[in-house]
Amino acid sequence: MAGTDEGAVAAEDDALYVLTAVLLTPAKFPSVLGDDYPEACAALGLAPLADGYGLVLGQDGDGARWTVVIDDVSLVAVAIASWDCGMEYDLSPDERTVVAALPGWPLAVAVAAPGVPAPHDPGPEDADRPALAPPDTTTWGPAQRRLGADEIALQWALWREQVDDADFVRPDAGADSADGTGGDAANGAKGADGAATDARKGHSGIRRVLAEARSYIDTPPPLGRVRSSFATGDARTLRADGPGWSLVARTDDIAFVLLDEEPGEVLPVGRGPELPGLLEALDKMAVRPS
Known about the structure:
Blueprint: E1 8-11, E2 14-24, H1 37-43, E3 53-59, E4 65-70, H2 73-84, E5 98-103, H3 142-154, H4 156-160, E6 188-191, E7 196-198, H5 203-218, E8 226-230, E9 236-242, E10 245-250, E11 255-259, E12 265-269, H6 275-285
Helix pairs in contact: 5-6
């Protein structure tokens, strides 16, 4: 995401040179921070307000990293939309909208403000709490699993074209197979490198994911565990997360599952007779962007 180094907001007593910004709302939050909106807020020590926040990431005049939390969500949304379109936008929130100035960055930022020292965490004399730091994504775990699901949702067509629907049908499975997808659960999967892998070991995990996702319909999970966003045509892109798993699906197509216990594996799940109804029900209760 492109940012701007033109705007500045107050962080403690110093100007903040804005590098980028992200939304932290029930419908759109950095999923690397948690499986749901309250968990993502807790990672920053924030209360999960219904309207959410905007996170402004930048450096002060000494180069120190700061994350300024504001409650003017629409302002940050406009800035992000402008940057995504290649337009300049001077993100300068009113000081009255500032909720907190947190040391450090909760996400990795690849750019730096010109004319100031290299990015570094504020010293203890300038901060009253430990500096935020991006979650460790160097090894497979919840953060990396959620980032993988983000990538599949973003590059759906690329991942979908690697899956042959014929791979879903198991010769030894009938319409009432134990995996709950009418014999169409994945027995062929694509690993992180795109190569076909044997997913038999993933069947129990897939069954668990589908069962837990189905339970969300009767017992609503924490806000943001299930999100729905635009896709092509009348379809929606669904994203659901839970303890140790992430699911990405199109309401008119298949689903992909990622599991903490299956490092780097992406398990496709065919539609079968039950998946369409599950996706439709999840879409109805999902949080949507306003």
